[in-house]
Design goal:
Helix content is 72%, strand content 0%. The protein is elongated.
């Protein structure tokens, strides 16, 4: 996996606070902190999108699945697996 460099500007007071977090939380360097911060943000953002989709679905004109719906989905999945196995 390749890496890239991003330069950011921030007020001195914010930098001082971040340096305190680095020391308190045992980060080896500033990059580790910001990678962790970015991962947490992206994970939280994805979770929020999923929750919105679920709520939108719950608030829509949802019709419960029937046994036939489940069986059709199952059959499509089995056909896909068979095609993958055949190459």
């Amino acid at each position: 996996m390749g890496t890239s460099t991003i330069n950011i500007s921030m007020p001195d007071t914010l930098r001082t606070q971040i340096e305190g977090v680095l020391e308190d939380d045992g980060y080896g360097n500033t990059s580790e902190f910001f990678r962790d911060l970015a991962r947490d943000y992206l994970k939280r953002r994805q979770q929020e999108k999923l929750e919105k989709m679920l709520l939108d679905g719950m608030n829509s004109d949802f019709t419960p699945w029937t046994k036939q719906d489940v069986e059709e989905i199952k059959q499509r999945g089995l056909k896909r697996l068979e095609a993958i196995r055949k190459g």
